[in-house]
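hey can u check if this looks right to u? its 94 residues, i copy pasted from the old doc so theres a chance i mangled smth
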Amino acid sequence: MRADTQAQAKIEYVRKRLYVTDKAPALSVDLDGYVRCGLSGEMTESDMLVLGLVLALRNADWKAKLIDRVKEKMEGASTPLSRVTRAFEMLTDK
């Protein structure tokens, strides 16, 4: 590299969006809303579901509506225990 090229080059931190795994696919959302996933090379239906959710979360309107629906169901749950209990109730609701 020439000296002037070295002066212009900058190193940037790049957050990974995709991890390849040999285990179950997974989805992770950072506190700032950054979404990443782990998928297997098999691209099973489970992988496709995780990938589909990641793609859906790119739609800001859909994501905001989803968060609003969950917030509405969480109303009144003011302690860690009540929030976890409410989440469990939502997961077991049919």
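The mean pLDDT is 88.
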